[in-house]
Amino acid sequence: RVDVARLLSQLTEADGVDVYGWVRSLRRQKKVAFVAIGDGSTLESVQAVLKPEDAAQLSTGAAVRLTGSWQASKGSKQSHELQVTQVAILGANDAEHNPLQPKYQTPEYLRTIPHLRPRIPANALLLRLRSQVIASLTHFFNQQGFVQTHTPIITSSDCEGAGEVFTICSNAAKEPEQCEKPGGQAQVEHFFRTPKYLTVSAQLHLEALAQAVEKVWTLSPTFRAERSDTPRHLSEFYMLEAELCFTNDLSDVMAVVENMLVAVASDLLSSHTGAELLKAREASQAEHESTTDSLTAADLKARWTGLASGAWPRITYAHAITLLQTAAADSSATFAFEPSYETGLQAEHERWLAAHVGEGKGPVFVTDYPAVQKPFYMSPSSASESNGGKEYNTAACFDLLVPELCELAGGSLREHRGDELRKAMEAKGVEGSGLEWYQDLRKYGSVPHGGFGLGFDRLICYLSGVGNVRDVVAFPRWVGRCEC
Ligand code: 4AD
Ligand code: MG
């Protein structure tokens, strides 16, 4: 028994070969039938040659075991093929009603059948990419001495303070409106006595764990009740987060992000999965005749090379605003929202920065955002910014921007001084919202530390060149959609 990927790389002839897989396509002729068999181990299929009567019960989608000999092929499209002596149908297929048809089907339609979608070879490839990237990350963090940890899904606070938490109702609360917002009064009987939420970030718990083993990371489910209906937002996604102690230099945190992505991209560049992603990109372009899909295989490879090269530009928020304003003033860019220091970066601004700073060859770090735009837990930058004659307090933080997807990761130094943290919490109105334990961390051996969070599904989008995060997650959930 051999998987399709291994069989295709085997160029010596062999008898008694068993191939398990699914029929990808079928061509019946008078004296012979050609069946393409795939098993998800590669984009490619094995060509199997059958007697027409043996192929009578087969259709695209059926699960089979084919036994035969692996022989040099007379055809020009493949070097070898399986001359089949025995066919076993392991899972019959209702060809007429199968929602997956062997023809082009739009991404929108395929999102309505997420339970079947992964069987499309290009989607199976995304599952393998995801798995490979996790392996690369695990290897990287192990090498760097980070401990992989698990943080809770059910929490008592809203880490980001953005009011985008999903509230967990007790059985008694049947109506969604009976669930409270953070800080609200319980009016229904709650399983945990007071309202609890699905986590919006592992960060606060990760900070607690970092103080035990110095460097920690986690890759965990994250939930946001954001109504953003965009190709970048999901209601349930995976966030990769890391936290490191004994640093008061934001560059140390950015270096972890950079080295981590350099490692992931380098692994990808030298892998079979990488080669297949480029092939899939070429096929996707050919299928759409480049109309809807403008990213070529060469562009995708350049993207990985840009990541793998590291040393990405780092600019401050104030500088970013100046660049945007200059571009708008000399008409080299047109924005729906005028860039201004106070209003913050819109997605269109982030997109422009990622495409123009450092010639758009890789990501760009934007640092030192105005503190008012950021959550309570960030340390102030060492120097404040002056803009238009006004002084602004800035946070020791960064966002990592990439073309098209905009924000891929964000991080900061954390306020580790108890008094300063209390003041920041008061200023942001989050004091007394179940974060006493977090403040407690500042009383007992609190050390300067920092960390970051990276949208893992966005990373998979960026690496695969797939334009919508809903198409790289097997069972995507977004506002109004959670069917299966
Ligand atoms: O920028 P965010 O909100 O940062 C935090 O939550 C920090 N507490 C993380 C930390 O420092 N440990 O989220 C981090 C990243 C974003 O940069 C983005 O890539 C991704 O998570 N993200 C989403 N991905 C998909 N769908 C959404 N709705 C997302 N919201 C954030
Ligand atoms: Mg952010």
TrEMBL record:
One of its GO terms (molecular function) is nucleic acid binding. It is an enzyme of class 6 (ligase). It comes from the Eukaryota. Belongs to the class-II aminoacyl-tRNA synthetase family. The gene is SLM5_3. GO terms for biological process: asparaginyl-tRNA aminoacylation. The lineage of its organism: Eukaryota, Fungi, Dikarya, Ascomycota, Pezizomycotina. Pfam families: tRNA-synt_2, tRNA_anti-codon. It comes from Friedmanniomyces endolithicus. One of its GO terms (cellular component) is mitochondrion. This is asparagine--tRNA ligase. Keywords: Aminoacyl-tRNA synthetase, ATP-binding, Ligase, Nucleotide-binding, Protein biosynthesis. Signal peptide: none annotated. Its EC number is 6.1.1.22. Residues 127-476 form the Aminoacyl-transfer RNA synthetases class-II family profile domain.
